[in-house]
Every structure is written in C-alpha cells, then in structure tokens.
Amino acid sequence: MATLISAGRCPQAAAKSAFPPGEYEAPREIVYAKPLTADDPATRPGKTLRLLRLRRTRPEGGELRLKSFHYMNNIAAKRELQAGGASASVEGLFLNERDEIVEGLVSNVFWVRDGVLHTPSLDTGPLAGVTRAYVLEQARRAGLACQESRYAWDDLLGADECFVTNSIQEIVPVLALQEPDGQLARGTGGLASNRAAADAARVPGPWTRRLMDAYRAAAEKGDEA
C-alpha cells in the first residue's frame, strides 16, 4: 500500500503564478493498494547487485529527502540495466558524485564484514527508509554492531555477506556482486571472492538469514516497522 500526498489548495495562489507565495492547506491523500503474493524467507530468492555507471542525483530539497514520484533517475538506471542484459533478479547499485555507495535502485543496501553491519550514512543521499531503520534496530537487538558511514565500492567488495531492503520485499539476500559490464566482481570478502562469486546458488549468510527471520517474526506479531 502506498499513500500519495499532494500539496492541496493555496488560498494566496495568484491566477497566473506557477509558484504561489503562500502556504498550502488541506493536502489531498490518495491511497494505492495492491495484493502481494505469499512469501517465505526460507525460500526467498536472492539478488545480484550490479554497480551502476549512472550516478545518484542529489536528494530533493538539499538536506530534506522526500519519498516522491520523481523516479527519472531510477528509470534511467533501470534502462541501463536492461541495455546491459541484466535479468529481473539484478538490482542496480547507485554511487553519488563522490563515488560513495548510496543505495540500490529500489532498496537500501547493507553488508556484514568482520562481524559489523555496514550501511551508507544518510548524508551520502539514500532514502531514510522505515525498513532501513527497523533493520538497524533489529540488528542491534541481536547483538550485531552497526556502522553508518561513507563507503566506496571496494569496501563492499570486502563483505562477507550482503542484503538489500525495502518495505515490500523486506530483507533480500545478495548472492553475487557485478561490475557495470555484468562481470562478476572480485574482492577480498567472502561474497566477492573467486570461490564464492562463482557459486550463484549459495544460501544467505548467517546474519542475513537471522535478520530475515527476525524481521518476519516481528511483522507477523504486528510490530511496527
């Protein structure tokens, strides 16, 4: 389910002005809903994470990030993946103009390295998703140290395990990393090592699976995420 909130009516709007000077009143809310297919974390398919050539545009409004229907950056990134022959199970990974990891095409990204859960800090430009915050909370409850910082692609290549999140898909394991040309990425971590990267069917890492199960259990109990 998604909720769209429009600006509503502005009493001070000038007849020929595209940018009214006054404040808007009574915003309109439109709710979109669609059925979701049944899902079990135990059988949830993993994704491949491919580095995008296209950079993430800066958040709307400077420091204020809005979740809006302005998806041109995402659409262009999706077209890049399609032009590169990516399958539907491939998620694009955005960097910003400073070559820092930001987020996935429709997700936040996390990875575990040496017993620490890493995710890009909000000042790099990702959406401050409710699922992102909830996963960090669940990880801390489980005793997993968490770090939000600025990371380069090479940092992710050192990951032992990786996953992406959003409110619809919950936690989805990443089973392989790809360079922009679709070639398997090589790195020092277990996820991108030569041995592990060649095994596209391997199971999620232990922390990923533990968080997947914890998230689903909390959702079924009605805990808010």
From TrEMBL:
Gene Ontology annotations of biological process type: amino acid biosynthetic process; carboxylic acid biosynthetic process
The protein, known as: Aminotransferase class IV
Keyword Transferase applies: yes
GO molecular function: transaminase activity
Keywords: Aminotransferase, Pyridoxal phosphate, Transferase
Recorded superkingdom: Bacteria
Cited Pfam families: Aminotran_4
Entry GO terms, CC: cytosol
UniProt xrefs under InterPro entries: Aminotrans_IV (IPR001544), Aminotransferase-like (IPR036038), BCAT-like_C (IPR043132), Class-IV_PLP-Dep_Aminotrnsfr (IPR050571)
Family: Belongs to the class-IV pyridoxal-phosphate-dependent aminotransferase family.
Keyword Transferase: yes
Organism phylogeny: Bacteria, Bacillati, Bacillota, Bacilli, Bacillales
Quaternary context: Homodimer.
Cofactor(s) required, per the database record: pyridoxal 5'-phosphate
Coiled-coil region: none
